[in-house]
Specification:
The protein contains 7 helices and 7 strands. It is an alpha/beta fold.
Length: 187
């Protein structure tokens, strides 16, 4: 499609990545906004008001924030699940057809662990199962809200996320090495 705007909302400003995205298609306006998915819904709504005021319309939301560190139980749940739910809830204020919204598309990044847990990281696996179930519920609400929802559930992907992380209660000190021994895909 003829993409007009791409907005990156992230905690980390990465000008090199933004420049790379701009170089891929110079006709697309790429904009960065600092954002932490763990903020309360009210803060997310405030940022979305700014974005919608500037662009007038947003067609798709990709919820892709995620961490893999079962030592940080609350943070893992906050980033991988609560943040996704809060961001989705906030954008529904703008998209929900019951409120006169135009509808939209939500793509939530899950994981194969949402269907087949990696037992050494049950907190991470549990958050991804929650993402799959939450998104499945959203998808069934599409006739009511006008918002289409689906998950993308990649397998083990060679990113910094999987090179070094902590297993729950240190049940497996070599979990990263064992995980990377399986077939992986490039990021």
């Amino acid at each position: 499609r003829d993409l007009k705007n791409l907005l990156i909302l992230d905690r980390i400003d990465n000008p090199a990545a933004i420049a790379e995205l701009k170089a891929i298609n110079p006709k697309v306006t790429v904009t960065f906004y600092p954002y932490d998915v763990t903020v309360p819904i009210a803060e997310t709504t405030k940022l979305l008001k700014t974005i919608f005021a500037k662009l007038k319309t947003v067609d798709i939301l990709i919820n892709g924030a995620g961490i893999l560190d079962d030592h940080q139980i609350e943070r893992t749940i906050a980033v991988n699940y609560t943040g996704l739910v809060n961001t989705t809830t906030a954008i529904l204020d703008f998209w929900d057809k019951r409120k006169g919204g135009p509808g939209g598309i939500i793509c939530n990044i899950g994981s194969v662990t949402g269907f087949n847990a990696i037992y050494q990281v049950p907190v991470y696996s549990g958050t991804k199962a929650a993402v799959v179930n939450f998104t499945s519920s959203l998808a069934k609400l599409a006739p009511i809200t006008g918002v289409t929802a689906y998950t993308v559930n990649p397998g083990i992907t060679r990113t910094t996320l999987v090179h070094k992380f902590n297993s729950w209660l240190d049940v497996e000190p070599q979990v990263a090495e064992k995980l990377l021994a399986h077939p992986t895909q490039a990021s």
